[in-house]
Write a structure and sequence with these properties.
This protein has 563 residues and is of the alpha/beta class. It has 13 helices and 21 strands. Helices cover 24% and strands 14% of the residues. Strands 13-12-16-17-18-20 form a 6-stranded mixed β-sheet. Strands 2-1-4-10 form a 4-stranded parallel β-sheet. Strand 1, helix 2 and strand 2 form a beta-alpha-beta unit. Helix 2 runs parallel beside helix 6, helix 7 packs parallel to helix 10 and helix 10 runs antiparallel to helix 11. The radius of gyration is 23 Å and the shape is globular.
Length: 563
């Protein structure tokens, strides 16, 4: 991972004491009734736009590739995907499917694909299907399946993305065109490589494009896709050929969130790994009181340093002002502390280096042990192979750098987002590089969601943990919406792994235990108020957390015919 040009507890000096609120307020029956009436009058249903819906998701598979068929079948069901084991109802039977074999192009091998073959074997068939079926604006999410390629090669330096130094040279020469399959498909209708001839900034495929989804907190329905097929007007965001953005005020030529497909991937070491990942995402209920967030930084002072300019910490590198997310690990820690729904003692933040401060789980034994976390993990944010100093293991025991993800026990809904350049490389038969941990290992060990890098991305472009925590773990967006809101750039190296339609139901808010947070839970809270944010006070702050979730779920349920 290259920059450009105590736990819980924290190890850089203990964190703030647990917040203690004032005495619990009394809630009279009359006040509770008035509050309920007020909520009803305000309209819980109208409080939030609807999230991504199953019919807006298009699953792409190839009937000539068995792994692709089996994964698509498990997700969409045997009725829509023939040729599998049969009898599968599908974890999301309402999604749409598209078989690449019907597009007339040759099959694309898994792993890495040339840019030319990406166009003819993936992009063109997808375009023709969406245009011919009238679904270009209806579909808002594309799902790629195991057995399909996940990396698009550079047009004139095929393997440069696997070399940090070569990538850096190509970048400063303004000629990086390699990308993840998912990130390139996000701008499906844009001819980014038009004019590309290996020169500096001779196409918009050179470099990366500022993601208009980054840092948003609205669901997909908040943005219309009316102009998604129109060519966009790109200009240099900082340096042409490195960063592109749009400044057009003309809706058809401006790149907005509605012009971006949220592209996810269902992949892992084995088909069974992917099936397990999908099963864990279905009907997702998360118990934040019994789950740990791991934020394993290193070489840090533990203080959220203001930016700009960026400091020397890998989590505080920012390419341009439009994507300046701040000192990510520290800001995520502080956000979790202030929110309170993740218990203070369950935030494992460590700022320090060397093996004693390298956080691992109990399921593997490492020489030097590291700092062992035995509680199920819900978010794994880790420097991994980029952890400074010495590492546990690597002599007689396994090397923790490349195996630490396999050492933890995971809660359902666990997320992987590590500070490693090639942590999403090892799909489609590819292996890792530089002893870096893999999203595929995390999924095999019981993980549910991941964001990662298929090529060297630079530290300036990695997804933001703060946004993942705010929009997914503690928010109300679907995985696809939340994951892409954490990624600063498109046509670059990031990929999103997992069920795009999954949403978190927090057990602490599901007061009646029916697997959904709705007005019945609000009524339950009014009858017996509880301390949702764990600040030792039962008050309106707890109620407002619940109201926000209820509003989001009510609108979602209305749109999906639940009520």
């Amino acid at each position: 991972m290259r920059p450009i040009g105590a736990r819980g507890r924290w190890a850089a000096g203990r964190g703030p004491a647990m917040r203690l609120g004032g005495p619990a307020r009394g809630w009279s029956l009359a006040r509770r009734v008035l509050v309920c009436l007020g909520v009803s009058a305000a309209g819980l249903v109208g409080g939030a736009s609807a999230q991504l819906r199953p019919e807006q998701v298009l699953v792409v598979y190839d009937s000539r590739v068995l792994d692709s068929v089996l994964v698509a079948e498990h997700y969409a069901g045997s009725a829509k995907v023939v040729g599998g084991v049969g009898g599968r109802s599908g974890t999301r039977p309402g999604v749409r499917v598209f078989d690449l074999a019907t597009g007339g192009a040759a099959a694309a091998a898994p792993g890495t694909i040339t840019y030319a073959n990406f166009i003819t074997r993936i992009r063109t068939p997808l375009r023709e299907y969406l245009a011919g079926s009238g679904l270009a604006e209806e579909v808002r999410c594309i799902v790629m399946t195991k057995g399909l390629p996940h990396r698009v090669r550079d047009t004139d330096n095929a393997n440069s993305g696997d070399s940090p130094s070569q990538t850096e040279t190509e970048f400063f020469n303004r000629d990086v065109t390699n990308a993840s399959m998912e990130s390139e498909l996000a701008l499906l209708w844009q001819d980014l490589s038009a004019g590309e001839a290996g020169g500096a900034a001779d196409s918009f495929a050179d470099g990366m494009i500022v993601n208009p989804w980054w840092s948003t907190s609205e669901p997909v329905q908040a943005y219309r896709a009316t102009h998604i097929r129109e060519p966009k007007s790109f200009v240099a965001a900082f340096a042409s050929g490195r960063y592109w953005t749009t400044t057009s005020t003309v809706p058809a030529s401006a790149l907005g969130p509605g012009d971006v497909y949220l592209v996810c991937r269902l992949d892992g070491h084995t088909v069974d790994d992917v099936r397990g990942m999908l099963d864990r995402a279905a009907g997702l209920v998360v118990d934040l009181e019994d789950s740990v967030v791991v934020l394993d930084e290193s070489g840090s002072d533990g203080v959220p340093t203001p930016t700009p300019p960026p400091d020397t910490e890998l989590d505080n590198q920012h390419a341009i002002p439009q994507t300046n997310g701040g000192d990510d690990y520290e800001l995520t820690r502080d956000y979790l502390y202030s929110d309170g729904r993740v218990l203070f003692i369950n935030v494992w933040y460590d700022a320090l280096s060397d093996e004693d401060n390298f956080i691992v789980g109990p399921n593997l034994s490492f020489d030097g042990e590291g700092s062992v976390c035995g509680t199920p993990v819900i978010l794994l944010a880790h420097y991994g192979a980029n952890h400074a100093g010495t590492f546990p293991g690597g002599i007689s025991d396994p090397d923790a750098r490349s195996l630490y993800a396999s050492s933890f026990t995971y809660a359902r809904g666990a997320i992987f987002n590590t500070m490693e350049s090639f942590n999403a490389r090892a799909f489609g038969g590819l292996t890792t590089l530089q002893s870096q941990e893999q999203a595929a290992d995390f999924i095999a060990a019981g993980g549910t969601f991941a964001v990662g890098n298929v090529y060297e991305p630079f530290a300036t472009t990695v997804p933001d943990n703060l946004i993942l925590a705010r929009n997914f773990l503690l928010g109300n967006l679907t995985w696809a919406e939340a994951a892409w809101s954490s990624i600063p750039f498109l046509s670059w190296q990031q990929t999103v792994i997992g069920d795009p339609l999954a949403r978190v139901v927090r057990r602490g808010e599901d007061l009646n235990g029916d697997g959904v947070v709705d007005v019945e839970d609000l009524h339950a809270w009014e009858r017996a108020p509880t301390d949702i944010n764990h600040d030792s006070a039962i008050n309106d702050a707890d109620r407002q957390l619940l109201v926000r979730t209820v509003r989001a779920f009510e609108r979602y349920d209305m749109e999906n015919g639940r009520r």
